[in-house]
Specification:
Number of strands: 17
Helix content: 25-40%
Structural class: alpha+beta
Shape: elongated
Radius of gyration: 29 Å
Largest sheet: 9 strands, mixed
Length: 632
């Protein structure tokens, strides 16, 4: 694939707002950015895809191919209509699409920049709102009651107008999220709750501009502070008088490094492998819906950036991905998934719950409210759209149920009082993660779209260890004898014994290790036990942490789960005092112990000068001396 072709392909995964930005300045984004403008907005919500997905999934690969074709045909037509009316498809929100018409100077679409919000005239607002309404009517005409595969796809539409903030936030692993907030989006969320299939709603901000130029039934919108008038649109009495179409942004060759940060790893991974088009697939995925009801258009960019990075770090630590960030009347909703390419693990449900627990801990420390839903199931994963605009998305029952559980979590008053942030998991997630996480069952929840109440479980914390009954290990006599001989040699003063248990998964290594521990306890041999974790594979000292927690006598302190400054100071004092007991000069090297501690330890003048191999060698020397001291 040529560089230009790759650039154009990547550009199709981002809205024209980002394409225009890259065309104006091809340098990659390095810090959070916020932009503000006025815009007409169209929200199109399609229903029927979830049932279609479940039905076609039962047909195997043939059904998946059919589903991918239907999705691309439908969303491709929707995108083409919006582009034909000059709109920009900014967001794919599940089965919905959000398009904007930024108000530009002199009716000219040649400019990449919208007018500053405060310089927009009422006449400008009127004509762009009319243009969005014209587009809504055409989408309604072409795509309402769309029949395919003996099923109907239904459509709800809404039009709004007003000030919009777009923010580029995140940056963890150079992955940036494009966030859009503003009162018009809040109105669209309310409209979506009020609208019935086949209706076009005009929200209050747009209604006051075009109510005299349309045939519509007046209706009430219950906004945060007032009751406002809107309408159910039937037709328009006059055209918008906007006839020029936008020019497609010209993305300079070589600008792919400016586009990649906005594109999911699932897409980048396929493109890097030369698979520019691939068959969509059904995957077993764990889906997280995280709602933040308080942040809105008034939230400072710095706070939005901190929240975005917090969620990114929590999800990426467990090798998940963020699929969507949407804003409506319920606040900010983040959709994350574990099990999407290029990362997939047998323990994705446990990873998803651990990511949610980490998000809960971090948000609680910042005193930020949240509600979280987690589900696991087989869902459709793939790119939908056409050559001009497409997006990688996930569709299926598990996605919908995760959103419903997030909503149900907001009503769990007892859990909110006790834990601050409630997390609700479905039965499949619970069954898959209960070996690693402690749960408590809560009463079944009635959710939209389900006739029967749904079983739900609330995760509490990670299990400290798996406690097995102390039964005799059957077999492995040769290995047990080897362990017993090594322990006897150790108690008689042998300098050291090394035993390596090596074998494939499931053949009994863990049971043999537990037998070693029981024999050591019987002989009163002092033990330090560390464990590896595939989630922590990028942390070279993770398996040693519990060992040094015991050496530094901070196990009980960490078990309390306190993250106060007092706890931090106590840990630092314990470490420094322990090193000083071994050798007073060794205390100067205390900051190097940070690699095995759960907290940061600021460098002093000595350790600040160490880097690379010199620092690594000193870390190993420090830890070795600690172990030698304990062994002696």
């Amino acid at each position: 694939m040529s560089t230009l072709a790759l650039t154009e392909l990547l550009a199709s995964y981002v809205p024209r707002l980002i394409q225009n930005r890259v065309a104006a300045d091809p340098s990659p984004i390095e810090k959070p950015v916020i932009e503000r403008f006025q815009s007409a907005i169209l929200f199109a919500d399609i229903s029927g895809f979830t049932l279609l997905t479940e039905r076609l999934a039962e047909m195997g690969p043939t059904g998946v191919e059919a589903l991918a074709r239907i999705l691309n045909e439908y969303f491709g037509q929707l995108i083409d209509i919006i582009h034909a009316y000059g709109g920009d498809v900014v967001k794919f929100a599940g089965d919905a699409v959000i398009a904007v018409w930024p108000i530009v100077p002199d009716l000219s679409y040649d400019s990449a920049s919208a007018l500053a919000p405060d310089t927009v005239s009422r006449a400008d607002q009127w004509q762009w709102t009319m243009r969005a309404a014209e587009c809504a009517i055409e989408v309604h005409r072409r795509l309402t009651n769309y029949q395919v595969e003996n099923a109907n796809l239904y459509l709800k539409l809404a039009v709004s107008m007003g000030k919009i903030d777009t923010a580029h936030v995140g940056g963890v692993f150079n992955r940036w999220e494009f966030l859009m907030t503003g009162m018009p989006l809040v109105e669209l969320g309310i409209a979506n709750n009020l609208a019935k299939a086949g209706e076009i709603l005009i929200t209050p901000s747009a209604w006051k501009l075009i109510r005299n130029d349309c045939n519509a039934e007046m209706m009430e919108f219950e906004l945060k502070d007032t009751i406002a008038q809107g309408g159910r649109l039937e037709s328009l009495n006059k055209p918008s008088s906007i006839f020029s179409l936008p020019k497609k942004p010209v993305i300079p060759a070589g600008a792919e490094n400016s586009l990649r940060p906005y594109i999911p790893g699932a897409v980048i991974n396929r493109l890097t492998a030369g698979q520019s088009s691939w068959i969509a697939e059904l995957r077993r995925v764990t889906v997280l819906f995280v709602n933040l009801p308080d942040p809105d258009q008034h939230t400072e960019l710095e706070n939005a950036q901190n929240i975005a990075r917090l969620v990114q770090k929590s999800v990426y630590r467990y090798e998940g991905s963020i699929n969507k960030i949407n804003v409506d009347d319920k606040g900010i909703t983040i959709v994350a998934a574990l099990g999407l390419p290029p990362f997939s693990h047998e323990d994705d449900p446990a990873r998803g719950v651990q990511a949610a627990l980490m998000i809960r801990k971090e948000l609680t420390n910042l005193n930020i409210r949240s509600h979280i839903g987690i589900t696991t199931g087989r869902i459709f994963c793939g790119s939908i759209g056409n050559d001009s605009r497409r997006e990688y998305t996930i569709i299926g029952n598990a996605v919908n149920l995760s959103a419903r559980l997030m909503g149900a979590a907001s009503r769990q008053d007892d859990l909110i009082v006790k834990y601050g942030i409630p997390i609700l998991c479905d039965r499949m997630t619970y069954d898959s993660a209960k070996g690693a996480v402690e749960f408590e069952p809560i009463p079944p929840q009635q959710v939209k779209g389900r006739t029967e109440p749904v079983e739900v479980f609330h995760p509490l914390e990670l299990k400290k260890s798996i406690i097995r009954p102390k039964t005799e290990l059957i077999g492995r006599q040769e290995e047990k004898a080897m362990i017993a001989n090594a322990l006897q040699e150790l108690t008689r003063g042998a300098p050291h014994q090394t035993i390596v248990l090596l074998g494939e998964a499931g053949i009994g290594k863990s049971r043999l290790f537990e037998d070693l521990i029981r024999q050591a306890e019987t002989l009163h041999v002092r033990m330090f036990v560390g464990r590896g974790d595939p989630i922590e594979k990028s942390n070279p000292y993770h398996a040693w942490r519990p060992i040094f927690n015991k050496i530094f006598e901070i196990e009980e302190l960490l078990a309390k789960g306190d993250s106060t400054e007092e706890t931090r100071v106590t840990i630092l004092n314990n470490v420094t005092e322990k090193l000083a007991r071994i050798d007073p000069d060794l205390a100067r090297y205390a900051p190097l112990s940070e690699v095995v501690l759960p907290i940061s330890f600021a460098d002093n003048e000595l350790t600040a000068a160490m880097s690379g191999e010199i620092r690594g060698g000193n870390v190993r020397e420090l830890l070795t001396r600690l172990l030698s001291f304990e062994a002696s």
